[in-house]
Write a structure and sequence with these properties.
Keywords: Membrane, Transmembrane, Transmembrane helix. By secondary structure, this protein is mainly α. The protein has one domain. It is 61% helix and 11% strand. It has a two-stranded antiparallel ribbon with strand order 1-2. Strands 3-4 form a two-stranded antiparallel ribbon. The longest helix has 37 residues. The chain binds zinc ion.
Length: 128
């Protein structure tokens, strides 16, 4: 059975399709169609922000560890990465990946990871 690319609901009768980079994806409603297009647009704009937001802290952490500057900056960078995950949930390299996990599912996973990262980072930053 087909599933909606945005919310993951199974669809018996295909009424709506959304076109993303020359390929058509099935959606269950106009709302999901709109949300998918919005996601694609934001994904294009902010994917680089997400990758940079992970790359820069990763480099800083590496230097921090090499220079043995303690763990404070590492935990702070963990918080930064967590916030990036919450604000910019665009981890997929291509839209094709959404056939296995829905767009909404990916956003959810990203945000949950982001929240865990942020809380854990803050906790470590304050306590260690
Ligand atoms: Zn849907």
């Amino acid at each position: 059975m087909d599933t909606c690319v945005y919310c993951g609901k199974s669809i018996k009768q295909v009424d709506c399709k959304v076109k993303v980079s020359k390929k058509k994806y099935i959606v269950c409603s106009d709302v999901c169609c709109e949300n998918t297009l919005k996601y694609v647009e934001r994904d294009k704009k902010y994917k680089k922000v997400m990758y940079l937001g992970i790359f820069i802290p990763a480099v800083l952490i590496l230097f921090n560890l090499l220079l043995e500057q303690g763990m404070k900056l590492v935990y702070l960078m963990q918080v930064v990465v967590g916030i990036i995950f919450i604000l910019f949930p665009y981890p997929n390299v291509s839209f094709q990946t959404f056939s296995s996990v829905s767009v909404r599912g990916v956003i959810r996973i990203c945000r949950i990871l982001g929240i865990i990262f942020t809380i854990l980072g803050l906790y470590l930053f304050i306590t260690v």
